[in-house]
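User: Teach me something about this protein's shape.
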Amino acid sequence: MGYVYLVQPVVLVGTNRYKIGRSSQSNFNRLKAYLKGTRNLCIVDCDDDKYIEKNLIEHFNSKFKLIGGNEYFEGNELDMIYEFNQIVYETKTELKKRPETTWLKRFAYKGWIFTSFHKWYIDIEKHIAYQVQLDSYIPYGYFS
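Assistant: First, the predicted structure itself:
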């Protein structure tokens, strides 16, 4: 289990500039890598940190001014904390409504998987798995 976060790196303290980020590690080594004096505003654990961070970046781009890379934003601190928590909540709620696709991650990130009489198209990033009935037998593990 990873996490997403909203921080104000020590070099930005005293400004209205902040960074959003994520880590797939269950420990807090990523946050510990920031220099002493960095302000940790929000830290939320989540199962799909990459997808949630992607949603955060898209939303922040529409609400706040991008000032560096694709994760540094300028804006009102309270507004950013509110928007961060709102997007994380909405995305986690959305993910709970989707079918479980964890077992598919073992096989492919994106592409076709064939099993006995079924073909699956998998796009883990979008949490989509389509099952298609095949007309003939294709050996398990065959990839096109």
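Now, about its shape. Confidence is low (pLDDT under 50) at residues 101-144. Residues 77-97 form the longest helix (21 residues). If you'd like, I can walk through any region in more detail.
User: That's plenty for now, thanks!
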